[in-house]
Amino acid sequence: MAEPSESSRRSLYKVVGSPPWKEAFRQLEEPVDLAVLEEIQQELIDQEQAIISEYEKSLQFDEQCLSIMLAEWEANPLICPVCTKYNLRITSGVVMCQCGLYIPSHSPELTEQKLRAFLEDHIQEHSIHCPHTPEFLVTKGTEEKSSLFMSCLACDTWAVILESQP
Fold this sequence. Notes:
Elements: H1 6-16, H2 20-74, E1 89-91, E2 94-96, E3 102-104, H3 112-129, E4 135-140, E5 146-152, E6 157-163
Antiparallel strand pairs: 1-2, 2-3, 4-5, 5-6
């Protein structure tokens, strides 16, 4: 049997319309496209929900950190005057800081409030006659006696804030 010529096929399509397999394929293609689009849409929704969930976790973590920082700030800890980074701790009259400051005081009754008052009094007294910010340092004197000093190079003054006992 002879194959129909290209021109006879075209003339048949003009009479009948497009080939039947094209229409069938088109009908199959639409649901597949729709299913693919729905799948893509669901993936995008899932990704968006994952991003929102991650953002909410991050926000919750930030809020917890802020809450902790606020609680520490409200507790008003005494910042080490030497390093100005860490909080001073006073235990049984011993003044300590993570920076290495260690001064065993002569007074086991020394508290954070008392040391804060000493520091504030000396700083306020200094600021009456000098606009510059004094510096603080720990020195080792005789007999391994440590002292916390306040000094100002601008006005050439110094003061002993706290002295340890050997």
